[in-house]
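Record type: ASSEMBLY
Status: queued
Input:
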Amino acid sequence: MADTLTALATQATERLAQLGAPDTKSEDWRYVKWKPAAELELAASHAITDTDADIVIVDGALTSSAIDGMRTSPTAADCERIATAIASGERADLASVDATFIGIELRGVRATPLRIVHHLTGGESALRIHILAAPGAVADLTIETRHHGLARCSSALNVVCEGGAAVRIDEMEGGATTPETIGVHLASKRLEVQRDASLRLTTALTGGTLVRHTTIGDLLDENAELIVGGATVTTGTSQAHHLVRLNHRVGKARSRQNFKTIADDRSLATFDGIIHVDAGADETDAMQQSNNLQLSPGARIVARPQLDIHTDEVIASHGATIGQPDPEEQRYLRTRGLDADTARSLIVGGFIIAGLAGMGSLRERAQAALLRLLGI
Amino acid sequence: MLKIDNLHVALEDGTEILKGIDLEVGVGEVHAIMGPNGAGKSTLSKVLMGHEDYLVTAGSVLMDGEDTAEWAIEERAHKGIFVGFQYPIEVPGVNNADFLRLALNAKRKAGGEDELSKDEFAPILDAALKSAEAPGAWTDRDLNHGFSGGEKKRNEILQMFVLQPKLAVLDETDSGLDVDALRAVARGINSFRGAGRTVVLITHYQRLLDLVEPDKVHILADGKIVRSGDKSLASRLEAEGYDGVLAHG
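Status: finished
Output:
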């Protein structure tokens, strides 16, 4: 297996060199502001002691774990998935091929959430996590990326939900830190959902020098369900980007994309999402929604909801809104006695809370972190 | 309690909607305002609440003898004015119970009273739920979000019971309600009025007035109150329609 991985790493390095750094001529990267990322002065890495999670990673290095069945080298199936990632050419995936590998196999019903924390203190790092939920597995996971100092990181998360598995992942990036301490994080997520399985991934995201999450999901069999979404807040001059591609490979499967974003000051936030339905994937049920609040005139929001449907018999909807807090909502709250500022805060806060409604154990902390960023 | 004198209201573009309304409602009274579509009924309710899109061009609105002209929207709520809207707004992500406590605390703070903790607020909310005959589960839901049309109207009644205003203006609260919900709302309004509160009902239908007996009924047409009378006026409207009543005087 080590030889296989070495070969894959070589392939990935060559492919990365061939592709070069992405630029705004590429459709998938056209809204990314590269200059701040290029000029980033990385902080020096330092040690972090964290005993508050099942798996703790610091700057891409595994420092502790308390998980039965966790492995640190890929299986043949993992290697196949890495090969697929190399073929697709997503940079974060390529950069993470020979990074620290963490493989987790979920079986049965897990009573408490599995908690993974990745601390970024400085320097450059990469990380690859593969999660396999075996048939019938039921589990909640939380994955946090906590920024302590300016760092540059590529990460790849691969989640496979086999038949009948039900997995919920709460993801939080930024947390209590401010955008000024968040460097560059390119995250690539690949999600596979098989027959009768369900995967919900909800992300609370804070903008940084450059934070970009790519989510590629495949609904591989009938009655598969994939729900992705969350809430993003960008402030200052930070930027955050979501690129989402959910592919319905067969019919009778269900997907939902529900992303809410608030951009303030002179920040930049983008959502670029596609529902793709293969030919013959009849009776697909798919929905995509991007709702955005622009809190200041200098903030920039781009929303591109797209459908790519190759069959006739589907239910598929998509939409996007960009606006300021609704004055009608504000007025309604004032008629009940709230002053204008409180009413506005309540509406903006409610927007975040609604975006994170799908979260489990991480919800309250994620809500509090994003609301705090907005001074609410 | 409420005295409206020669009230003229226009939109920013100059279109006049209310053209000289005179209305006086005493403490503890229930008045019904009926009128054809576009007569200005909802505009009147919004003006009473201080909606900025409507300009008062002449006349006055007095509440307990005080001129309301300079009162901001929230100040009107603090002073005891409540409007149950025809189309209550949905506010996703804002928990109903949290919002109700915030609203009551805003009113208490304005009145120089201490704000209530969650524990202190709980019995008030329970009592309001009981009075409004609203399910307890509504307190866990977001404000009007995902509520049916009828549920939203009943949630307005719940808010009314929490805030205990002096004056409640209920704008077509009966529309969209099924028979059981209509009866529940009527019981709520009767219990509210029994506590010495004042109610102005804006409605199209006599069915609500069969359950909540008004002290006076007014017909608002083309921006003016053109007829006033007792409950029998509503019965005549039901039988003859606006054209018939207005034609025969």
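Annotation: The longest strand of chain A covers residues 123-133.
Annotation: Chain A has one domain: 2-326.
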